[in-house]
Design goal:
Length: 678
Amino acid sequence: MHISFRRSIWLAIASLGSIGTLYACATRRSAAGSLVTGDAAARVYVPPGSYDEFYAFMSGGYSGQVSVYGLPSGRLLKLVPVFSQFPEDGYGYNEDTKALLQTTYGFIPWDDSHHPELSQTDGVPDGRWLFINANNTPRIARIDLTRFETEEILQIPNAAGGHASPFTTPDTKYVVSATRFSVPMPNTDVPIASYKQNFKGNLSFVKANEPGKMDVAFQILMPGYDYDLGHAGKGPSDGWFFFTSYNTEQAYQKLEENASQNDKDFIVAVNYKRAEECVAQGKAKRTPAEYYHNWVDSSTHEAKSERKTSVPVIDPKDCAGIAYYLPTPKSPHGVDIDPTGEYIVGDGKLSTVIPVHSFKKMQLAIAAQAFDTTIDGIPVLKYDAVLAGEVQHPGLGPLHTEFDGKGYAYTTMFISSEIVKWKLGTWEVVDRIPTYYSPGHLMIPGGDSKHPWGKYVIALNKITKDRYLPTGPEMAQSAQLIDISGDKMKLLLDFPTIGEPHYAQALPASIIKDKQLKFQKLTDNADPWVTRSESDGGIVRTGKRVDVKLIAIRSHFAPDNFEGVQAGDTVYFHVTNIEQDWDILHGFAVLGMQNSELILQPGQTRTLQWIPRTPGVYPFYCTDFCSALHQEMQGYIRVSPAGSSVKLVANVSKKAQAQLAQDREHEKEHGKHERKER
Ligand code: RUQ
Ligand code: CUA
């Protein structure tokens, strides 16, 4: 029955003659209403005031950010800035967060982010953190999910193209990063034609389970191929990590053709427990490598940078048993491990089958030394010795696979534009659904973990075409929500996304909903520039630098008038929001400011640099409509010509003046110097 089903699908595709007709056919079916059934609207409707069941963290692609959507509604909830500056809240512009974007290449205001990855405990997303990679200048960021804020970024040295990243081990001990592009290591000036001698690949294991302490635990030196994606083993395969590699041809020009020659490329299986042993035995070489570690200090809430100078590098030749190659057809992209940890699914972009390796058979093959050959210290296992099965005729252009926890796998077919559902163990295709168009990744909440919440799959499409109101040559990016709770997949919803939605991960809202920070405690605010009360603000000069301290509270700044600044000074505004109330934010912006605004969470201090160029009086105001008298929340700063004799002064509010007067009385009675410097 399955065979005839499969054959009939394949014959159907063959008889259509071209993919274009396949699209046309699918679109007609959609127009006829057979794809979206009547209850779809009810299935995705979330009544006003209710929460979505899942939070989906979607990669912002070339926006460098993460966007958070509710599922099933597809409502955009929040944008979390990570690798790109974000003027909306001053991320990467204010003095407090700039250090997060520091690298050995200098300050970098943009990157291309691909893979959001939730931290896990015992192989299941736990809602502590979200990691995401920077692809262009390889880095890994950690986002704290009690605040939805980026709090740490680690640069990955000896790498170029941090694509296979930041997939996690089941205990979040490590997240990984493999270099997509092989490069000279260390990167020096050599002829490109010396690729085979000089270019190397590299797999980085990054210690990830302690906030503020991310670092490269070790790197494994690899042949100069391209490394694409990775996933950790789990259950029986816990302790192993799997990475795809292509361009085993080692082409360095016209890869489109030259890297598509070999019939099989490799998935590399890394025994990282063995790697740990080799490091402990001193078999890793401390190798000079410059990189930055940036993190937000938990007490001052200011980002700091540290420049690191070396990493331990393991050469597989010095550490037998660390890595094995599993031959895999053909230019594999995704590698995905099923929830039981037994099956290793390779998605060969150019392959006509989906090959699945068996972890058990891999262990036996290693014990029996069923090797074809050895490359740079890495034994190549025999394909037939490790293969569990092949999914025949799945469609065209398999890219990524996720699992529903009920024994089924779902694979995106980029070229034939569909998601294909197949059964683990029998390898039969049981269902397929068209997507619009050309899906890259797909995502089932928890779908790469031990316990998927297998209710929905999202297709993360690469091409949008006619799905939304046209917006000129560049269309919105597109995701599609598909119900997988029954035997047949059902399309429920299209929703546009920000940047290219490479990958996404999701978890039930219940895991993180009650763990959210409501405000920063002013008493715990250790920012060196904090102003704790209305009367503590002021203005001081140190040469050409002027520091301005003020507070924001409904509905005023204090002080709100400053004089004595001169054109060409470098002014730092240190603004503290002294509210201690959930969701009461204030903003801060000055006329002619050259970077961004500040947004201040309750209890938070932020610093903005401003260089006024011309004399005049500059208003500043609150940018967040915070109260009925928000429009009154403003002030002035006077800028005089350089060398002017106008004195530095700051006024204080009426309340503060009363407080000041009281303090002076107090001083008179009890002697001076009791009050702290202001
Ligand atoms: S990738 S479309 Cu950048 Cu994750 Cu596969
Ligand atoms: Cu504070 Cu508007």
